[in-house]
Automatic annotation (TrEMBL):
Cited InterPro entries: K_chnl_volt-dep_Kv3, SKP1/BTB/POZ_sf, T1-type_BTB, VG_K_chnl
Potassium channel tetramerisation-type BTB domain ranges (all copies): 7-65
Recorded topology in the membrane: Multi-pass membrane protein
PANTHER family: SHAW-LIKE, ISOFORM C, VOLTAGE-GATED POTASSIUM CHANNEL
Organism from which the protein derives: Anopheles merus (Mosquito)
Name this polypeptide is given: Potassium channel tetramerisation-type BTB domain-containing protein
């Protein structure tokens, strides 16, 4: 994946990698509006953390794809 367009989402300890363009497919959602200024962004790990069920998130990400 292209590092500049890639985004890492840590959901409940499971890391998912996808493209920013994938998350922008459904506008006006929290995932489509991710920015590094958000409190859940970790600049050291270069990832966003969400305290949610990772198994459920896999289905959410598949919907975006």
């Amino acid at each position: 994946m292209d590092g500049e367009n890639r985004i890492i989402l840590n959901v409940g300890g499971i890391r998912y990698e996808t493209y920013k363009a994938t998350l922008k497919k459904i506008p006006a959602t929290r995932l489509s509006r991710l920015t590094e200024a958000l409190a859940n962004y970790d600049p050291v790990l270069n990832e966003y953390f969400f305290d949610r069920h990772p198994g459920v998130f896999a289905q959410v990400l598949n919907y975006y794809r």
